[in-house]
Amino acid sequence: MAALIDVKKCKVLRAAPRLMQIMRVFARHKFLGALFGRGHWPTPKDVRETFEELGLVFLKFGQVLALRRDLLPTAYIEELELLHDQLPAMNIDMVRATVEAELGAPLTKFFSAFGETPLAAATIAQVHVATLLKCSFAPRWQMSPISGYRMSSLRAREKPC
Q1: Could you tell me how far CA 135 lies from the centroid of its own chain?
Q2: Which of 34, 86, 104, 105 is most buried by its number of CB atoms within 10 A?
Q3: Beta strands 130-132 and 111-114, pairing class
């Protein structure tokens, strides 16, 4: 007699796509052999790039590991320290799509200018300069491990709106 499994109720099955993605990234960066005790550890650069590719939780994990000099060799610590202040910025096309989806209209309807280069990029947020039709402000885009990117705040900059 075959038992039917409700995928929505089974946490392991819901997590399977993400687990497969993690395994593919680990394989591409030569992590799998090391994790199973059958190979050499990847280079420090590969470790950092793996964490960057896997997203928010792994970035935070890498940042914590960078603080633990008692756990890793110096070369790994130095490479993981780059996760504190040299993170890649979100793609401007992704930022535009997010803003337009949240505002429900094209950028040109609300902004006379929108800076393509971010003022700052961090683990969970990125800041761009934008000019509304009457004032200048700095929107911050927050990354969410669950829902992707979203506009989290609009802070006035220079001239009040």
Answers
A1: 29
A2: 34
A3: antiparallel
Q: What angle do CA 6, 15, 99 make, to 5 degrees?
A: 110
Question: What is the rounded CA–CA span in Å between residue 23 and residue 161?
Answer: 48
- Angstrom distance (rounded) from CA 126 to CA 143: 8
Q: Any bridge partners for residue 130, and if so which? A: 114, 137
Assigned token pair, 102: 């949240």
C-alpha neighbours within 13 Å on the C-beta side of residue 122: 7
Q: 81-127: per-residue pLDDT in tens?
A: 998 877 777 788 888 888 888 878 888 888 888 888 888 777 777 88
CB 53 within 8 A of CB 61: no
Tokens matching residue 10 = 């089974």
Mean pLDDT across 4-10: 63
